[in-house]
Amino acid sequence: MMLLFKRDIWQEIFGSIRKNRARTIITVIGVLWGIFIYIVLSGAAKGLDNGFEERFEDVAMNSMFAWAQQTSVPYAGFKTGRSIQLKLEDVDLLKRRIPQIEFIAPRIVKGAFGGEAGSVVFGQRVGVYSIYGDYPVLSKIATQKIYNGGRFVNEGDIAENRKVCVIGERTQKELFAKDEDPIGKFIQIDKVFFRVIGVKKFEDGGGFGDDGDITIPFSTYRKLYNTGNDVGWLAIAAYDDADVIQVEKNVKSQLKKIHQIAPEDERAIGSFNLGELFTRISGFAKGLTFLSLVVGIATIVAGVIGIGNILLIAVKERTKELGIRRALGATPSEVRGQIILESVFLTLIAGILGIVLGAFVLKMIAVLSQDTDIPYTNPTVPIPYVLGALFVMVVLGTLIGLIPAQRAVSIKPIDALREE
Questions:
Q1: Which of 85, 236, 275, 281 counts the highest number of beta carbons within 10 A?
Q2: Is the pLDDT reported for residue 214 higher than 90?
Q3: Per-residue confidence at 247, pLDDT binned at 50, 70, 90?
């Protein structure tokens, strides 16, 4: 430990580095490159993971959507091309038959997916917007962020078929004056008056819709548009410990049984499994992190071995010098400590430079990704991981330094003095 504070030891270390400047720089770059790769790849994986979680933070991780299409296989006396219509009764049947389902929300819409939108009037202002019929349970699957003073539809609205609505941010801007509070005001939706009970903050990702949508109670929607028990699609959230991929298979299988669809018909029931997508993205991020660890450690080890080779060469070139030091009274521990200290010093410098350079690159990636639609946020590596990588480098530097250090200690003073 006292070697750290001896000025002549550091002078010899820097003198040795200067003599082998080119080789030292190349070897340090090798070690630097290892931790740089680890920092950049791990940070990139974390940024992707963070970005995806942020983009879909308001949607249940174990969620999926299912909707009906047309059959592609004749079955039970029905011809190919039969249109399937989901019904409200399907909700109770699925809940009873698939215990892994935690929440299920039937939804219906006028105006989305190419349909004719609803005409909305407030005073002298007119707009055309998609009208959604929803149940309160939807907020359990996809968080409904309502601005202060407002609310989402509730069970009372459903039970009493209330003519209330939640409007979008764009709808508010287009129908109301800048400083006008829409809460409590009445707007006409397809010539029927509805009281505004909330303004929804639009969050991109995780389902259907945009910032101009209007939500009304599902029961009110049925009466307004005479849709009976028809359902547009189902939003489903499974329990956290459930296999959402298997839940999706079970949902499609049960819907086929309910609506007399051939089991092998893959086109009649459409679905989108957000939970499966989450799993894939998470798995990719973990794989990238593991790859960065393997590649980074391999590169660091190669670089540290290079440092050991340089020190072996330096020991050979300084044979006479080391012999003189031994003859003048230098102990084996002092000689060994100097060589190990030099190895650790080079490894530590390379590690710090690699960390700084990696952090800079991650910062540049974060800045550049802000202007894109790529779900990418805060690409960082936890400080404990960085310190752990640096600690591993120091340990490797110490171990590799033992080889040239032992070589230096094994030199006999009398043999060294004869060296030409």
A1: 236
A2: yes
A3: very high
Residue 184 included in any domain: yes
pLDDT tens, 322-339? 666 666 566 666 666 677
Residue 82 lies in a domain: yes
- Three-state SS annotation for the chain: CHHHHCHHHHHHHHHHHHHCHHHHHHHHHHHHHHHHHHHHHHHHHHHHHHHHHHHCCCECCCEEEEEECECCCCECCECCCCECCEECHHHHHHHHHCCCEEEEEEEEEECCCCCCCEEEEECCEEEEECEEEECCCHHHHECCCECCCCCCCCHHHHHCCCCEEEEEHHHHHHHCCCCCCCCCCEEEECCEEEEEEEEECCCCCCCCCCCCCEEEEHHHHHHHHCCCCEECEEEEEECCCCCHHHHHHHHHHHHHHHCCCCCCCCCCEEEEEHHHHHHHHHHHHHHHHHHHHHHHHHHHHHHHHHHHHHHHHHHHHCHHHHHHHHHCCCCHHHHHHHHHHHHHHHHHHHHHHHHHHHHHHHHHHHHHHCCCCCCCCCCCCCHHHHHHHHHHHHHHHHHHHHHHHHHHHCCCHHHHHHCC
Residue 257 lies in a domain: yes
Residue 148, in any domain of the structure: yes
- Within this chain, do residues 192 and 124 fall inside the same structural domain, yes or no? yes
**227 and 249 fall within a common domain:** no
Taking Cα atoms as reference points, which of 145, 135, 116 lies closest to residue 236? 135
The answer to whether residues 39 and 82 belong to one domain is no
The domain in which residue 310 lies consists of 2-56+279-418
The pTM (predicted TM-score) of the whole model is: 0.69
When divided into structural domains, the chain yields a total of 3
Residues 195 and 248 in one domain: no
Is the domain of 209 the same as that of 306?
no
* CA distances, 1 to each of 16, 53, 341 (Å): 20, 47, 10
Q: Are residues 305 and 348 in the same domain?
A: yes
